[in-house]
Design a protein that fits this description.
With 163 residues, this protein is an alpha/beta fold. The protein has five helices and seven strands.
Length: 163
């Protein structure tokens, strides 16, 4: 491929990616999901709080480690202003979900991602991925890959109180 064509193609792809992220930021999210216990929620139910919306898969080792880290965050940070939600994207792992939650002692909301999750988040391509939502339900940050407890605390203390 010629350098000019490559540059042009790269710029077009970059514009599309930026456009999809800014579309997420410009509007509040609205979708239903079910917890592993069968409770139905709409993401809008959590407006008025900051939300860490974590997408994970049962086959992802770093996702499993991060679930434990998010549980520690849930214990350290003010839950008056912060809600942590982890949604599993792989339907094959559904039978494992109660075991995953109990073995890690997870005390925050864990459920199944709706089937349209890839349409809701067109920029989602890496596991784990966490979207940080403001109190209006708008994406303000996208965090990809594993983050340590200290990295999470640094990010969150801009918005909520963490011990």
């Amino acid at each position: 491929m010629k350098p000019k064509k490559f540059l042009c193609l790269t710029l077009i792809i970059l514009c599309l990616i930026i456009g999809s992220v800014s579309n997420l930021q410009a509007s509040s999210l609205n979708f239903d999901f079910y917890t592993y216990k069968g409770q139905k929620y709409n993401i809008a139910d959590f407006r008025g709080k900051y939300v860490l919306l974590n997408l994970f898969a049962s086959y992802c080792p770093t996702c499993m480690i991060e679930l434990g880290t998010l549980n520690k965050i849930n214990n350290k940070c003010s839950t008056k202003n912060l809600e942590i939600i982890s949604l599993m994207i792989d339907k094959e792992g559904i039978p494992l979900l109660p075991k995953i939650v109990s073995s890690r002692g997870i005390k925050y909301t864990v459920g199944l991602a709706p089937s349209e999750i890839f349409r809701i988040f067109p920029d989602f391509s890496e596991l784990p991925t966490t979207y940080f939502l403001n109190k209006k339900g708008e994406v303000i940050e996208k965090i990809t890959g594993y983050k340590s407890l200290n990295d999470w605390i640094k990010l969150l203390t801009k918005y909520v109180s963490c011990n």
